[in-house]
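not sure who needs this but someone in the group chat was asking about Serine aminopeptidase S33 domain-containing protein from Trapa natans so here u go. i didnt clean anything up, its just raw.
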Amino acid sequence: MASCFVSPLFGPNWELVRLRHCRVIARSASGGSYSTAGIPPSPALSPVQEKQYLGPAVEARDGSSTTREKLDLQWDDGYGSRNVKDYLDAVKEIIEADGGPPRWFCPAECGHPLEGSPILLFLPGLDGTGMGLILHHKALGRVFEVRCLHIPVQDRTPFEGLVRLVEETARLEHSSSPKKPIYLVGDSFGGCLALAVAARNPTIDLVLILINPTTSFAQSNLQSLMPALEALPVDRHFAVPYLLSFGMCDPIKMAMVNIDNKLPARAQLQQLLGNLTAFLPGLSELADILPKGTLLWRIKLLKSAAAYANSRLHAIRAEVLVLASGRDNMVPSSDQGQQLVKTIHNCKVRHFKDHSHALLMEEGINLLTIIKGTCLYRRSGRRDHILDFLPPSTSEFKAAFEQIMWYKMHTRKLQLLSYFWLLIIWQMIKKNGTYAMLKSNCRPLIYASSPVLYSTLEDGKVVRGLSGVPSNGPVLLVGYHMLLGCELYSLVREFMLEKNIMLRGLALQVLFNGSLENPTSQFLLADWLKVFGALPVTASNLFKLLSTNSHVLLYPGGLDEACHYKGEEYKCKWPNQPEFVRMAARFGATIVPFGTVGEDDLVKHVLDYNDMMKIHFLNNHRVRDHLGEVADEEQPRSFPGILPKIPGRMYYLFGKPVKTHGWETILKSDKECARELYLQIKHEVEHCLDYLLKKRQEDPYRNIFDRMAYHIRHSPPPEIPGFQP
């Protein structure tokens, strides 16, 4: 059932009309208002109804308003609650009373956005229905004011007319909120429409998200089908949209959207077959969405849209993100994505090599996650990494930490097999190289290494868990960075699970300044770090985080520790500047030193910078350039060469919290006092490392085979014990 609503206060020349279960805000392509025959206008809303639709933070006609809530950690973004069958049902209802010129509507399930949210205009693909975001309505609706463009089946508005309609809407929004960005999400044909609007309006702050844009229509197979489609009798046309759908989408991936990955394999297969049985017959209804005349007209629109957009790419000044599918049988999206990155000045791309043209309808694609991971979400002219941060949702947590092969195994036998990750990772190294493997496959370390965390209470007692870490901020966690930062994933995950706290990690600038972007970029580890709170390591960001009572993760050793030389394991390589101590004292923050060990039980460090510079090829290639900034230019670093070992275990110890409340004046004026506290914290980190290195010898389950035996004896497997503190 389609359910859409809009505000009657949206702007001038707009009227609220009702389409059965669908509320639609409409405006003609010519700019004037209209009333579609057979669709009676909705009655005026009462103040109570107005408040219900517009949300508690929007002022109603009686002048009342309330404060809008914030997003919680692991909030429900609704991903997986809708699938392609819901799309077909919604489209069927919309086109029953279709007519009139193109118009905008807002899906009711988008709900009420957070206060100050920017507007998002969705521009549809070949279908023209505007329901292509149905899998993402709830998530996007929490942080955007979503408006979708609907092009009726019988509408024949030329491409320039559609450009003017979108352009006028963008200008109207810009005039009412000049400091907010306007997001144009263009799917397929809509991508060309978004590019055309951006080229004509370089002074408006636009953010373009293009999903398989058809700018490469000249290389599409659709052109060769035109003569056959024109000659085909009308009574035979019903099969054409049905066949086109199989060329544009992957039915299996579409059917997997709402399947629970925690179910046994047999239950997952049954649910998959049920989904396929439910929506495949509905594809025949595409003939009503794209009858012969409409399909021919839309293909001609694609041709004119591609020519129009390609001739104006040089004029685009907007921020652009291209999402390109590797198995797009409609247009060569992957090649076109690489070309757009080279042509448009401020453009980046994310490739999804296993997906089809209908990317937004397929399993594993959460549009809001992609927007967050590429740092495109902002509420003003410039992104604020603190104020514009959106906490991870439930589906993002599952995608990052649960929906991987090692976690889906449920029986005892499969749990045993899951531990043999060594051969799998070794094959990945041989196929892709060490660097590529680590960028995309570090998450299994959480499960293969079975991390165990300890903390220190106020009285100095060491206990298992995070009870010794303060729950109320501001808190600054300062610790040792293991090789390649492999301790990060378990650390973030355990704080979210046990304490419901989001750690905000200060990371290298190279992750944010665009130097890692290239025409073949995929959505990998660097993007997931941003989804889970990473931000550039700067004094201003640390200041803002502490001022908002956050839990901040800081590694003073930074790159020197994460890419250390051979023989430097568990050696703190901190600079001589105790700036973070004075910053913490300024806000009365609690500093928690911590240590982590286990890298030598997971990988063998076989090549460091010195070794690589002795190899002629690597010396010429200058591997260290890939890491960007180096903390200490006297000790250059490179990405280390490693080999996996039979997994041991990772251990964490959080030392006794150091309170700086009341020390503000002393630490600010007395540099020697600040230095002494800095050295004390460093010594405590070193003590944590020494303690763990000694105590791990007493862990009866440090060896992976002992943990396997423990799993055999217990079902379901409980938390694996560690050493006694």
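also The first helix runs from residue 47 to 54. if thats useful
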